Amino acid sequence: MNNKEFIAALAAKTGYTQEESQKMVKTVIELMGKSFETGDAVPVSGFGTFEVKKRLERVMVNPSTGLRMLVPPKLVLNFKPAATIKGHVRKGGMENG
């Protein structure tokens, strides 16, 4: 499902116009981005939690040259799904509805 299809499905499900649905989705994403910038986790009830984690500094070895390099620490976005989502995925996918 691409963005256009997602917005159309959201609009049909909620009764809002596609323009209103697009604006809501953009607003949610902007607010999530601002939370990530400040290091705050974003829990989505029944879906999971998005959080920023720090990857520690580590040594990496280039397999073709054998050269060892130091990889600096960095921040990465992590998603931890809720147990209900994990269960649906293990059973072969999410239900429509």
Write the layout of secondary structure elements.
Layout: H1 3-14, H2 18-37, E1 42-44, E2 48-55, E3 58-61, E4 68-71, E5 74-81, H3 83-90
Antiparallel strand pairs: 1-2, 2-5, 3-4
Give a written overview of the molecule:
- The protein is of the alpha+beta class and 97 residues long.
- The protein has three helices and five strands; from the N terminus they run H-H-E-E-E-E-E-H.
- Strands 1-2-5 form a three-stranded antiparallel beta sheet. A two-stranded antiparallel ribbon has the order 3-4.
- The relative contact order is 0.11.
List keywords for this structure.
97 residues; alpha+beta; three-stranded antiparallel beta sheet; two-stranded antiparallel ribbon; 3 helices; 5 strands; 28% strand; elongated
The average pLDDT is 91
Structural class of the secondary structure composition? Answer: alpha+beta
Q: Widest sheet: strand order?
A: 1-2-5
Give the termini distance in whole angstroms. Answer: 15 Å
Total count of strands: 5
Proportion of residues in β-strands: 25-35%
Helix content: 40-55%
Largest sheet: 3 strands, antiparallel
Helix and strand pattern: HHEEEEEH
| Shape category | elongated
Low-pLDDT stretches are none
Radius of gyration (CA) equals 19 Å
Q: List the total number of helices.
A: 3
Nutshell version of this structure?
The protein has 97 residues and is of the alpha+beta class.
